[in-house]
Amino acid sequence: MNWPETSSTLARARAEEPFEFAARDGILRGIFTPPAPESRDEGICIVFPGHPRFGVQRFPVLAARQLAAEGFSALRFDLHGHGESSGATAIATREEPYGDDVRCAVDAMWARGHRQFLLVGYCFDALSAFSAFGDHPESIRGLLIAAPPVLERSSIGKSVTQSDNPGGLLQRVRTALGRRSEGDAREGYASFATEVSTQLPKIAERFAAGFDELVRSSAQALFLYGKNDPLYLEFQVVERQLLEPLAPEDKARITVEVSPELTHAWEGRRLLERTIAWARGFRSSKQPR
Amino acid sequence: MPEPTPFWSVRECRQLVDLDGAVLYRVVREGSRSDGPIVVFFNSFGADHEAKWRAEVAAGRHFAEKGFTTVSYHPRGHGDSSGNFAELTFEDMVADGLAVADFAATLPGASGIIAVGIRFGALIAAEIIRRRGDVVGLALWEPIHRPRDYFLELMRHQAIAEMARGRKTASSESELIERLSVEASIAVPGQELYRSLTTSALELDLRAMLEAWSGPTLLAQFRRRKELSRDNTSLAKAMKGRGASVTLEVLQEPEGSTGNEAWLFTDSLAASTKIWLDELA
């Protein structure tokens, strides 16, 4: 993407260190970006799981360098089986997010003295980050979760997850979701699913558990979706079943942003800019330097 | 901790190094052979680089485990290196490749370079060969022969996606080529094509770039059909005509593949390239 380098981001690139740590499936490899010595150390480490660690047009690389120039530290790393990490390469599935990898990344950073964390991920990486949240609810201050799948696959049809822009299909689903009775919802899902499920759309247990942890914690979460992303249709089930019933003070920590013109494919630049702006909200002093 | 992959025995040195004011990420995987050629990978650009990186890593470790020292890097504007992708030119990518080849040539026991060109990286490898005299072998993985055709193909994929959304876009070849030279950037699936790179590479032709090459060559292709593509056939014929030893590998794609998945480029390619490397050594 077009992202002109500054002297401060180039300096952070020069300061970066290859970093590796042990996880269940072997050695995971990444790059650690230390905070700029001339900036006030924010005491927050941002963890970017990736497959690879520079995926989605390098947004984790550029975000890490920009935010490190502003006093954050960052670790971007390859999930197992991807990039330079060990382990067998498998097609990523919503059923098995790599939360253990993210937990080990936070542990490794903890061992180096970091105590506060932000987790940032897109799609499967986001799901992996979210599923690790419950292991460190006290030390993770925020999650930026972009466009993850959230439902049990068995409870939805193939078309929802495989089609890019199903057009009129979207309208039918929205109509279905607008209805409040379970029977209507079932009918609505049955109408758009290629492989009709006999079940109601069901939030993945792991996601629901992570959401419970999130509500119990004091962390802030930002969920990002494109309005035309079929996965946002899934998230609307979360909005209805998990988010709406929350107490206002809990709901206030959870933000959902939906970009009207986007599908599932986010441009790296948009993700980069949103990540940087979001992370700045965690600075000890939010005044621009 | 035990390593579950077969690559654990490989010793790696990962570095971020200065290169003319930029920072370049590179990794050396130490092979056990005390002397011999160093395998250097030249990968594709943009989203294709991202998609093929795992295959490069896996193959690099596989070859190192079998004794060959291998070197990988991220060109500027890619991966962990510095630089703005939007400003990148083909010459920049060649300059980075040359710097890495220079470095590889200084490694202990190095006696020449075996270049592995992956997709668009085949063109970089070809240019490295033109500018250096120490390349002793060339492996081409699903090479891009003419960037012009490749860019057009990417733009057509985008046009089809746009049409599916009810939007009309330019579709004739001349319209698309004009867009490449006029617009600062053009969205194609998964990335942007920036004018600096497209205009600097537009007229390249792999066969012409390799017209002086007659060294041992591996030409690997993924196709649903069993025959080599016309471009690969033509390239192989030209090289054989100059007395080059050309090994051809047609690797079958599994049903349902789009032909561009990262995992397709891993095991089968690494295995066939390893056999070729052994014969070369």
What is this structure, in a nutshell?
The complex is a heterodimer of chains A (289) and B (281). Chain A is 40% helix and 19% strand.
List the helices and strands and how they pair.
The complex is a heterodimer of chains A (289) and B (281).
Chain A: H1 7-15, E1 17-23, E2 26-33, E3 44-50, H2 55-69, E4 73-78, H3 99-111, E5 116-122, H4 124-132, E6 140-146, H5 158-162, H6 168-178, H7 182-192, H8 205-216, E7 220-226, H9 230-243, H10 248-251, E8 254-259, H11 268-280
Helix pairs in contact in A: 1-2, 2-11, 3-4, 4-8, 6-7, 6-9
Chain B: E1 11-19, E2 22-30, E3 36-42, H1 46-65, E4 70-74, H2 90-105, E5 110-118, H3 121-131, E6 135-141, H4 147-164, H5 173-182, E7 185-188, E8 191-194, H6 195-201, H7 206-209, E9 217-223, H8 230-241, E10 246-252, H9 267-280
Helix pairs in contact in B: 1-9, 2-3
What do you see in this structure?
The complex is a heterodimer of chains A (289) and B (281). Chain A contains eleven helices and eight strands. Chain A is globular. An eight-stranded mixed sheet of chain A has the order 1-2-4-3-5-6-7-8, with helices on both faces. Chain A starts with 6 loop residues before the first helix and ends in a 9-residue tail after the last helix. Chain A is an alpha/beta fold. In chain A, helix 4 links the parallel strand 5 and strand 6 (140-146). Chain A has helices at 7-15, 55-69, 99-111, 124-132, 158-162, 168-178, 182-192, 205-216, 230-243, 248-251, 268-280, and strands at residues 17-23, 26-33, 44-50, 73-78, 116-122, 140-146, 220-226, 254-259. In chain A, helix 3 packs across helix 4 and helix 6 (168-178) runs parallel beside helix 9 (230-243). Chain B has nine helices and ten strands. The longest helix of chain B has 20 residues, at 46-65. With 281 residues, chain B is α/β, with parallel strands linked by helices. The model of chain B is unreliable at 1-7 (pLDDT under 50). In chain B, the strands form two sheets. In chain B, strands 1-2-4-3-5-6-9-10 form an eight-stranded mixed sheet, sandwiched between helices. In chain B, strands 7-8 form a two-stranded antiparallel ribbon. Chain B has two domains: 11-145 and 207-280, Alpha/Beta hydrolase fold, catalytic domain (Rossmann fold, 3-Layer(aba) Sandwich), CATH 3.40.50; 147-203, no CATH class. Helix content of chain B is 40%, strand content 24%. In chain B, strand 9 (217-223), helix 8 and strand 10 form a beta-alpha-beta unit. Chain A binds chain B through residues 1-5, 9-10, 13-14, 16-18, 22, 25-27, 29, 31, 52-55, 57-58, 61, 82-84, 86-89, 91, 164-165, 167, 265, and chain B through 1-5, 7-8, 14-16, 18, 22-23, 27, 47, 50, 53-54, 57-58, 74, 78-87, 161, 164-165, 185, 189-192, 194, 262-263, 266.
